[in-house]
Amino acid sequence: MLSRRRFTALSSVLPLAVPAIGTAQTGWPSKPIRWIVNFPPAGAADILSRILAENFGSSLGQPIVVENKPGAGGMLGADIVAKARGDAHIVMMSSAASHGIGPVLYKNVPYDPLADFTHIHSVGTFPSVLAVNAGSPIASVQQLIEMARAKPGEVTYGSGGNGTMNHLVGQLLAISAKAPLTHIPYRGSAPAMNDLMGGQIVALMESLPTAIGYFRSGRMKPLAVSEAERSPALPDVPTFREAGFPDVVTTNWFGFSAPAGIPAEVAGRWETEIGTALQSATVKEGFAKIGVRPGTLGAAAYTDLIRSELARWKEVIRAGDIRAD
Question: Which fold would CATH assign to domain 128-225?
Answer without folding.
Answer: D-Maltodextrin-Binding Protein; domain 2 (3.40.190)
